[in-house]
Amino acid sequence: MSRRLAVEILAASLVAAAIVTTAFWIYSPDTPPAAPPQCPQPLELVRDQAAPVLVCSRDREAVARGAADAGLPGCTEGILAAAADAAGPLRMALHPDCTVSFRADTLSGATSMSLGMPIDVNRATPQDLEAVPGIGPKLARRIAAERAANGPFCPLDKVAERVHGVGPNKLSQWAVHLTAACPAKLPGSP
User: Fold this and answer.
1) What's this model's pTM, rounded to 2 decimal places?
2) 146 in helix, strand or coil?
3) Helix 60-69 crosses helix 76-84 at what angle (to 10 degrees)?
4) 126 near 110, Cβ under 8 Å?
5) For the domain bounded by 109-179, which CATH number is listed?
6) In the structure, what pLDDT confidence band is assigned to residue 89 with cuts at 50, 70 and 90?
């Protein structure tokens, strides 16, 4: 095969590929991906050591599916009743007798991150902190241990000052994922 023939075959192949790609682009439906539904009260259902199930507590069908996924399909009414009086995101533990208990007043770190919500460094467990990109198990334990020994990080910048291995650069990268809810000071206190 001559070199000229090889070049012509290659050129024809490229033109054919360009035509097919252009036709597909022009004639394919232009439907953007559906946006996730807005939920005023996300609810994380937890049972024993099973993976948590995230549902919208105001959606009866989603709660029923979540209860079934958690292995307790008959608990929908109990879940809805328990969530009705609560405000904000919830983490709810399910029990075999369909009673529920609130494990914490915040969602897990991974769930918070998936919803685009920041994690409170002053209330997070080491496992919650590990959901933040760049925080591994050892650093998460150091942050939690420093907080337990010396009190909350107020403001968030104090994490860089008090925890070995965290500097201003790392903290600035984490700032979109972390927050520091500080206790209110009483008038006249330092």
Assistant:
1) 0.50
2) helix
3) 120
4) no
5) 1.10.150.320
6) low
